[in-house]
Design brief:
The chain is an alpha+beta fold and about 100 residues long. The protein has 3 helices and 2 strands, in the order αββαα. It has a domain of about 70 residues: SRF-like, CATH 3.40.1810. β1 and β2 form a beta hairpin. This is MADS-box domain-containing protein.
């Protein structure tokens, strides 16, 4: 029998399965936020040409830019960069505090 060295087994691409799990978790969390905190939740994800939406109510969300500008108080906007920056600052702050 010949021994084959340095041969890597390709892992199966599980990105679709992982995405479906995260999407399911996000929908469940959106429902909980809606029920517990009486909040309207709208989530929209575009991935590989497909659009995934979660609406906690039948009300037409998302708001148009005009509706956002006319609402008071102004909406709190968070981007992925904002969340990453917040995670990094919390991580360095916790390490510096100990």
């Amino acid at each position: 029998m010949a021994v084959i060295e340095n041969m890597r087994v390709r892992k199966r691409d599980r990105s679709n399965e992982n995405f479906k799990k995260k999407w399911s978790t996000l929908k469940n969390n959106g429902l909980i936020i809606h029920q517990v905190y009486n909040a309207e939740v709208y989530v929209c994800i575009r991935r590989k040409g497909e659009k995934y939406e979660f609406k906690s109510t039948d009300k037409a969300l998302p708001l148009s830019d005009q509706e956002k500008n006319e609402s008071f108080p102004l909406p709190v906007l968070a981007t992925a960069a904002d969340v990453a920056r917040q995670r990094n600052s919390e991580g360095t702050g916790a390490a510096a505090g100990t």
